[in-house]
Design a protein that fits this description.
The chain is of the alpha+beta class. Helices cover 16% and strands 34% of the residues. It has helices spanning 6-10, 114-124, 163-173, and strands at residues 2-4, 16-25, 34-44, 49-62, 69-84, 103-105, 110-112. It has a 5-stranded mixed beta sheet. The protein is elongated and about 85 Å long. The termini are far apart.
């Protein structure tokens, strides 16, 4: 997602432009592109260009319980300031930003939103993604996906250390 902001950098502080975004981005790093769509607003600031927007995507993930692939919808609210590397009027290189990890406007006055979208997407993905809340996972013995039905394994033997608790529960239910 690249946007040329040379004209916006020549305008006064507070000038804004709106753009529709729609592009494939490799969010998870597996080589597959994820369709990202939405709207971004570019606002000229005293230092550079502030990018604000709301984007939507569906990221392909694997369930952490049953290992099945599924699509996870993500909504991203992006707000990042991009700083120029070249002065728009004179063409002289500017001193690098003191802020580590800041996003830059390249020497051709182009903003690349790809890395910001990737970072925001990775923050929006859950640490342990689930295909559904009640995912049953895999059988510990045979590995069958229990969402597709029970497996043929015998039930695990009861732990004798919990027998007194089981008796209390049985008495209370009777």
């Amino acid at each position: 997602m690249q946007i040329n902001v040379s004209q916006l950098l020549k305008e006064s502080i507070g000038s804004a432009r709106d753009y529709q975004a729609g592009e494939l981005i490799d969010i998870t790093g597996d080589g597959s592109g994820t369709g990202v769509q939405g709207k971004v607003r570019l606002l000229r600031t005293h230092r550079g260009v502030l990018v604000k927007g709301e984007l939507r995507a569906e990221v392909g993930l694997n369930c952490s319980r049953c290992l099945s692939p599924f699509h996870y919808p993500v909504t991203l609210k992006i707000e990042e300031e991009y700083l120029p590397t070249i002065d728009i009027a004179s063409g002289v290189p500017l001193s690098s930003s003191e802020e580590p990890g800041s996003f830059i406007i390249d020497e051709h006055h182009v903003i690349d939103l790809t890395e910001a979208v990737r970072q925001y997407s990775l923050l929006a993905i859950p640490i342990k993604p689930l295909c559904r809340e009640d995912c049953a996972g895999l059988c510990r013995r045979c590995g069958q996906n229990l969402n597709q039905g029970p497996c043929g394994c015998p039930p695990p033997a009861a732990d004798h250390r919990w027998s007194e608790v089981s008796n209390l529960i049985s008495e209370k239910q009777a």
